[in-house]
Write a structure and sequence with these properties.
Blueprint: E1 4-10, H1 13-28, E2 32-38, H2 48-59, E3 65-72, H3 91-106, E4 111-112, E5 115-116, H4 128-133, H5 140-150, H6 166-173, H7 179-190, H8 192-198, H9 200-210
């Protein structure tokens, strides 16, 4: 029964840990074996052309090698295709437009582009009680209440302002929040299914990854 290898090109260690701790165990049951790969040592935003070169090298490894991205829409470099925002456009619409343009540039069916709206921490807003309960030494009820005041919209619609992006909202409430350690751990605590229900753009990406392995051939 054929399986596939999936390279997840990650913006930072947070996304890399998410792949190892949450996405990997889920996809391996479907014969998709993901590995998070940092684009730069220690992580950080990366321009499109270097990304494109890495994508090509992965795809050159053979037909069972797939590649996807996990990059934040927040602070995405301006050289990405279709980067320019449009008036009245939701973040998820803009992300999908960029993904479509990336797919056209790479032009390979084994490339699954994904842009996170607006950043990884948006996923945490699926369950603010889970965020609060991750910090047992703090006043969990107060944390949850403060976070709810910060975000009365769907998680993927939390805006991308420099002071109001999802991670900035969390840091205002929990000064000790560690993006690399706490972020993936809280996502694991919440679970993929609730996040998929609350975050349709994220859900669409997971569904595409689940379908990467070929269907078993039942004919002998």
């Amino acid at each position: 029964m054929r399986s596939v290898t999936l390279t997840v090109l990650c913006e930072g260690p947070t996304e890399q840990r998410f792949v190892a701790q949450v996405l990997g165990p889920h996809l391996r049951t479907l014969r998709v074996f993901p590995k998070g790969q940092l684009m730069t040592p220690g992580g950080g935003v990366v321009k499109f052309q270097p990304l494109r070169e890495v994508i090509s090298r992965v795809l050159d490894q053979g037909k069972d090698h797939f590649v996807t991205t996990m990059l934040d829409l927040y602070a995405l470099p301006a050289d990405y295709p279709a980067h320019t925002p449009r008036a009245g456009e939701a973040g998820s619409q803009r992300a999908m437009r960029i993904e479509t343009a990336m797919r056209q540039k790479v032009n390979n069916q084994r490339f699954v582009p994904y842009i996170q709206v607006h950043e990884f921490e948006a996923l945490l807003f699926t369950d603010l009680e889970a965020v609060a309960s991750h910090f047992p030494d703090e006043d969990t009820q107060a944390i949850a209440a403060q976070l709810r005041r910060h975000a009365k919209v769907p998680p993927e619609d939390v805006d991308d302002g420099k002071e109001t992006a999802p991670s900035k909202r969390i840091l205002k409430v929990v000064a000790g929040y560690s993006k690399q350690v706490d972020g993936p751990a809280i996502v694991g605590r919440i679970g993929l299914d609730p996040i998929r229900r609350a975050c349709p753009h994220f859900a669409g990406w997971i569904e595409r990854l689940e379908r990467l392995a070929p269907e078993p051939d039942h004919h002998s």
